[in-house]
């Protein structure tokens, strides 16, 4: 996978030299070639295809209507209290989006809705500021990855900020199989682009610190397809589970808390209770240590209709749950519970308890257990996570620290020990022992618990919870001045 990405990136970089990024991004002929796949011409329409254009138009219409539902904000049936919000994109006088020209709505034969969608539904409003103009002089374009439908690129804007661009992947699975089936490249583009549009509308409607921020979008013609859509979003780093398992508990807890806050937001969103049908870690990214959902084209708002609780089985590979069927004929809380169990099986069970402060373990174990059993809803789960944050941030988790015999430490202000490092786990710094502490007493406790530790250096860098970072050292034979640090050395005895 990594190799394939690298190869694709290399292909992209090579073709980047041939023209501006936009030509490369939007001209299907110059898409980055995939290994083992020649960028040949799309198959010509031929006989023997299922359905035909009428079927394609029907599918486009279905997606179009879904997007319209989301952009109008009406919650799906069975969703909780409707919290109708003013349609931002219809609000007059809001900061407009830069569009180089008003897109001309183009009708498609056979009754498919016109593309691009009429102004209003489907086009986000007050938030995004960037338009096509922002993409005219980008640099450092890099292929990031692709799914079935979309390809993601990282580019640098003229101001220096790096952003992500998402566009329909012309050599992707979705477009390819549609063209094979219907032989209609434009119609197939339109079908695929509605997924991108849906995601854009959801990113805008579900704005939250743990939802990737939409900065804007651009419609422009590519060589043979008019008005291709590119969305411009915040850039995140992929969630690498193996790497996360090696980071501090504090950082892993942050990810779980982010997820708890996101699921709470999704359960109470203006659109109703939103579920993410595809919940794998690759649907999320990290931005400055916060987890954010990026992929929303598999999000669903509608709850499952039912006649009895036999219709409300939540199926997972290792476990099935039966939920109640409400009097209104909807499976109660199914969207929320699906998200919660997925949070348990993909994130909490790996990230939450492992190497946590011992006094917090019982609380964390209960969160893992309750989400794994679906015995709490999202509100309760988030309340418990916030409680853990409070105990950790306020230092209350330290109250029962063992008051064993302690050595005395001598304070050497404005100084540091440049070497004499040892490794510890999980350190914030490769090659030395850098840990966060709540206060001096905790730093002393850590030093006392490490056989090698003879000194430590308190920095004034802090972690996301405001804890101070401290270097632990094997000795203090060489102490040098540093205005930002304070050294503590273990007195003999
Ligand atoms: C694009 O960026 C380059 C390098 O930053 C700059 O020299 C050039 O003037 C820019 N062009 C436009 C049209 O802004
Ligand atoms: C869950 O339900 C499905 C279909 O009802 C069944 O095939 C599967 O074996 C069940 N899985 C577990 C773990 O019970
Ligand atoms: C600290 O110890 C007391 C008494 O042993 C206990 O009641 C309390 O729950 C402990 N607190 C924590 C955070 O472990
Ligand atoms: C939750 O705890 C119960 C009782 O200790 C145990 O039987 C069950 O397997 C746990 N469930 C999960 C998902 O950890
Ligand atoms: C770092 O700490 C030193 C004293 O230890 C203080 O003088 C300095 O202002 C602090 N710097 C920052 C950026 O907080
Ligand atoms: C101390 O911190 C200040 C502010 O963060 C920084 O500008 C300065 O370079 C630091 N001094 C040393 C010696 O690291």
From TrEMBL:
- Keywords, alphabetical: ATP-binding, Developmental protein, Differentiation, Glycoprotein, Golgi apparatus, Kinase, Nucleotide-binding, Osteogenesis, Phosphoprotein, Protein transport, Secreted, Signal, Transferase, Transport, Tyrosine-protein kinase
Q: Which residues form the signal peptide?
A: 1-23
In the Enzyme Commission scheme, what number(s) does this protein have?
A: 2.7.10.2
Q: What class of enzyme is it?
A: transferase
Catalysed transformations (reactions) = L-tyrosyl-[protein] + ATP = O-phospho-L-tyrosyl-[protein] + ADP + H(+)
Region listing for Disordered, in residue ranges: 29-130
Protein's name according to its UniProt entry: Extracellular tyrosine-protein kinase PKDCC
Provide the species name: Callorhinus ursinus (Northern fur seal)
Q: What is the lineage of its organism?
A: Eukaryota, Metazoa, Chordata, Craniata, Vertebrata
């Amino acid at each position: 996978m990594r190799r394939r990405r690298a190869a694709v990136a290399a292909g992209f970089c090579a073709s980047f030299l041939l023209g501006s990024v936009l030509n490369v991004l939007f001209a299907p002929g110059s898409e980055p070639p995939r290994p083992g796949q020649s960028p040949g011409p799309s198959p010509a329409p031929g006989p023997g295809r299922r359905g035909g254009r009428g079927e394609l138009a029907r599918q486009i219409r279905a997606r179009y209507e879904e997007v319209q539902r989301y952009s109008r904000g009406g919650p799906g049936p069975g969703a909780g209290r409707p919290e109708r919000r003013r349609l931002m994109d219809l609000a007059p006088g809001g900061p407009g989006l830069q569009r180089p020209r008003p897109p001309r709505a183009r009708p498609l034969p056979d009754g498919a809705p016109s593309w691009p969608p009429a102004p209003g539904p489907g086009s986000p409003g007050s938030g995004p500021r960037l338009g096509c103009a922002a993409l005219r002089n980008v640099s450092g374009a890099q292929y990031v990855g692709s799914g079935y439908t979309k390809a993601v690129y990282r580019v640098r804007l003229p101001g220096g900020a790096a952003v992500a661009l998402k566009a329909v992947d012309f050599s992707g699975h979705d477009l390819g199989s549609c063209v094979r089936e219907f032989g209609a490249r434009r119609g197939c583009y339109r079908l695929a682009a509605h997924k991108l549009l849906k995601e854009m509308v959801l990113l805008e409607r579900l704005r939250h610190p743990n939802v990737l921020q939409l900065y804007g979008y651009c419609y422009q013609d590519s060589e043979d397809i008019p008005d291709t859509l590119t969305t411009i979003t915040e850039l995140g780093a992929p969630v690498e589970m193996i790497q996360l398992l090696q980071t501090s508990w504090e950082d892993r807890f942050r990810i779980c808390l982010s997820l708890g806050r996101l699921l709470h937001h999704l359960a109470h969103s203006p659109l109703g209770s939103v579920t993410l049908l595809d919940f794998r870690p690759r649907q999320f990214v990290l931005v400055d240590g916060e987890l954010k959902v990026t992929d929303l084209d598999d999000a669903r708002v509608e709850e499952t209709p039912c006649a009895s609780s036999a219709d409300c089985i939540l199926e997972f590979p290792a476990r099935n749950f039966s939920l109640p069927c409400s009097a209104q004929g909807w499976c109660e809380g199914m969207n929320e519970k699906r998200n919660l169990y997925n949070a348990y099986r993909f994130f909490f069970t790996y990230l939450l308890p492992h190497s946590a402060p011992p006094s917090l373990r019982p609380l964390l174990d209960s969160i893992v257990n309750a989400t794994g059993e679906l015995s709490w809803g999202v509100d309760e789960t988030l309340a418990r996570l916030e409680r853990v944050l409070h105990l950790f941030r306020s230092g209350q988790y330290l109250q029962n620290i063992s008051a064993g015999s302690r050595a005395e430490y001598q304070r050497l202000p404005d100084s540091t020990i440049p070497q004499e490092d040892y490794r510890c786990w999980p350190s914030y710094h490769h090659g030395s022992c850098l840990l966060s502490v709540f206060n001096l007493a905790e730093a002393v406790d850590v030093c006392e618990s490490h056989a090698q530790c003879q000194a430590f250096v308190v920095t004034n860098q802090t972690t996301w919870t405001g804890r101070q970072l401290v270097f632990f050292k094997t000795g203090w034979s060489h102490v040098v001045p540093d205005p930002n640090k304070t050294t503590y050395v273990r007195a003999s005895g």
